[in-house]
Design a protein that fits this description.
4-stranded antiparallel β-sheet; 20% helix; alpha+beta; 6 helices; Ubiquitin-like (UB roll); 3 domains; Pseudouridine synthase; 10-stranded mixed β-sheet; 18 strands
């Protein structure tokens, strides 16, 4: 693939520094230097240290990544909510694992994405899941179709600039209309669980009450950090675990999976410098609880 930019900056610089300002990572630039692509300025092949001036056309040419033979192809269905040359956004159903592991190596979300890209020829056969969800959490997952997209979005991910909104059904009635949970989260020894602990990593979750009754509360939540199980841990810490979340003490009599849905995602497309926003509906198993009240 090739990506071309115009240098609109009046100050002279090098190809490497220019690409870094566009969001291209150091590792990817190094890969190109070591034979995995080419740098071009005004259609002339150059090196990363070549000087450029205002108005120059800079092109980064990348060889396709080789297929990851360890990831099997699955042709099971994908619920695609947005797609362009660089990005694929899918609505993951509850129960589907994000990446292959010991218990499922053939039909995870990554296997299905690889199958879709192979069938359509619309991306490298080594797709990158920019976001992941727990197996029993439903909703939006962002996939970079090639390694340049993955490289250019990484700064937004690291700086928690992707705006991720979730809906959750939790046990009990939360009276306050709005709140922020700002408690560090760490790993529990010899357990898949995480917990609030002083030695944990900084974690911040904001919530707004949407609806409630004596038995449950519907929350809209925004993640300001991205720790493993963050929403599940923070809500259990409040004494209001997710409905169906057996691992963190949530009741399982009305729903058999944690009632958590990644409903919307907004990010700045580094290729166009325009925002992309995608939204999905609350799934039927959660809606049934809300409507049965």
């Amino acid at each position: 693939m090739k990506q071309t930019w115009t240098n609109i900056n009046e100050q002279p610089t090098t190809v490497k520094r220019f690409l870094q300002r566009q969001g291209v990572g150091h590792r990817l630039i190094a890969d190109v230097k070591h034979g995995q692509g080419h740098f071009w300025v005004n259609n002339i092949q150059v090196t990363s240290s070549t000087s450029i001036k205002q108005g120059d056309q800079i092109t980064l040419e990348l060889q396709p990544e080789p297929e990851d033979q360890t990831v099997a192809i699955s042709n099971e269905q994908l619920d695609i909510v947005f797609e362009d040359t660089n990005w694929l956004v899918v609505n993951k159903p509850a129960g589907l694992t994000s990446i292959p592991g010991p218990t499922n190596s053939t039909d995870t979300l990554l296997n299905r994405v690889k199958g879709y890209l192979k069938k359509t020829g619309s991306g490298d056969l080594r797709p990158h899941l920019v976001l992941r969800l727990d197996r029993f959490t439903s909703g939006i997952v962002l996939i970079a179709k090639h390694r340049l997209a993955q490289s250019m979005i990484s700064a937004q991910v690291e700086q928690h600039q992707l705006e991720k909104i979730y809906f959750a059904l939790v046990a009990g009635n939360i009276a306050q209309a709005h709140g922020v949970i700002n408690e560090p989260i760490g790993r529990v020894v010899d357990s898949p669980k995480r917990a609030v602990m002083a030695t944990g990593q900084t974690a911040r979750t904001e919530f707004w009450v949407q609806n409630n009754n004596p038995n449950w509360t519907l929350l809209k939540l925004q993640l300001h950090t991205g720790r493993t199980h963050q929403i599940r841990v923070h809500l259990a810490y409040l004494g209001h675990p997710l409905l169906g979340d057996d691992l963190y003490g949530g009741p399982t009599d009305v729903i058999t999976r944690q009632a958590l849905h990644a409903a919307s995602l907004k990010f700045m497309d580094p290729f166009t410098n325009q925002p992309i926003e995608v939204v999905t509906s609350i799934p039927i198993d959660m809606r049934q609880i809300i409507l049965s009240d």
